[in-house]
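Aim 2 progress. For MHD domain-containing protein, the working sequence is reproduced below.
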Amino acid sequence: MSGGGCSVRAIWILTPHDTVAFSRRFAVVEKRWRAFWEAEGGGGGEGDGWAAGVTAPPQLPADHEVAAAFAERRKRQGTARGSGIRTSLSSVGSDSWVDDPITRHVISLHIAKEGSDGFMIWPVVLQKRGGYYVLVLPLVDPQSFRAYGNLLKRSDCGSSGKENGNLSSILLNLPCITGAFMVAHVIGDIITGDIVEPEVIVNSGPSVGGLLDSLTGSIGISARSKPTAAPVAAPTASASSPVGAAQSESLKGGVRPFDKDILRNFIIGAMPFGTPQDLNYANVNSIRTTGYSGDPLPTDQKQPAWKPYLYKGRQRILFSSLETIHAALYDRDDVSDFLSVSGQVTCRAELEGLPDVSLPLTGLKTAHVEVSSFHHCVQASEPTDNKQTLVFQPPLGNFVLMHYQAPCNIAPPVKGFYQLSMVSENEGAFLFKLTLMEGYKSPFIMDFCMITMPFPRRRVASYDGNPSIGTVSMTEHSIEWRIVSSGRGLSGRSIEATFPGTVRFLPRTAQRTNSSFRSVSSAAYAEDSDSEQDNVKNGASLDDYIMEKINKDLQAVDLEEPLSWQAYNYAKVSFKITGGTLSGLTIDPKSVNIYPSVKAPAEYSMQASSGDYILWNTLGKCPTAVLPREI
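Predicted structure tokens for this construct:
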């Protein structure tokens, strides 16, 4: 059974107040679960999760029993996810006793029953999205269930790869775990309203070219048409917002209500009888509203599940390379800079029929791609020399063809140094000296670039200083320096930018009321480990919540470094570059082949943007092991 794919026994969505907001059980899968146990001879002994001699497992627990078990686990483990690491407070039979961090995401629930010891359900895949807890219980074989029950009692269990029968080895033989994570992820997207197609960038019009491009390029300004997102067919009114009218409602209990009918209809279409068939929300919605295509197909072709109906219209195929660069720049001889690129190739194939597309990737040797993964419709050849060929039958709409990670193979787009020192308790002097786009030639274009100096524990009163280029503005807790503005791109040459100045803060006594409010707000969300993937926290952004959470734990420091509160002794760089990739991995649109042959132009665009791109204060103490998002 371990190789038989994924089937789901039940789904629960719980609120932060330990109540069930939504549940769905699949009777067909549950019947299979009971049949497996009867074929194996029943429970058969202790450690199986229920009493010895029981020939069939109990029924799935009621909603209130699941909510009570989840609340008890959260109390016992410290948070809903727990740490996954065995401590002195861990007890035999708890997930933390297994001593494996994966138990933060694949958990067990112990269901209490009056008059008996109760029973356990496992593996329950846990994800937190939008303040809700999404629990998915997949179907597993009795042997795997018994193996985990034995782990809960072993004194020597853990995550060591040398062990036989450890949790990792058990889960590797269960493909249903991956399927359950995919189910939980898409349900979380529907709850939060994060159902959007991947971005595919195309030019809004032809390049003006000629003399104007030559003139503007020679002075470092781009006059070319700006890239825009590829148009997507308008969805039906009911599907345009997955959370429906609830999006405009006020928050209730710290979470945003979601449309249960939309979620229920998606589950019916995506996983009939509990077996996931197609978890693409756009496809499921299209099938529900328009049905499968009625166009006849050639007898030698089979319509794939990811293409429920055929495209009709002007034919073309669009590709986009979208890269994000993460960097920590120290400008020190004793500390090496960190640079890394994560990217994806997105595609939109507006092709009639069911053609096969062959796409060569170039620059593999230059890019030194470390990790790559492909869409399930892709057949990838083994990399040879500097190329790799992808053959696929594209689905409808925008989709991610591949993900990859690679080092940055050219100089950082923004480099230089940042210095900040305090001249008094409420005044600091700073200096930036930067170089932008050094070594970058046309067609690379920097569309915008901005530097942000965050001061999360001080309120900015004013600043003095004039940058050599750009404009400056301030917020309550930051100073923002916009070097390159949108609409006036930088192309064809590098520039140097300097910004000396001073910043003044309000006295600390004027901040006590505001700081007290932040402490109360942070205490209300004490479950630190539960917020990692939560994109919405009571209407605020995740970055704001993480900043607020870390502030709560940071201690006051001496005057000589009053701004060096661990993660905040830095300036953050934000930028967007079009016209090339930073990794060196590219696509040659002229080499794209379509079979059967059709007259369809292939268009290719490239874009790179900043992720965690940090300039550390060279005068302060800066961490060297991690980036701010990992602290």
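The first strand starts at residue 8 and ends at 14. This observation will guide construct design in the next reporting period.
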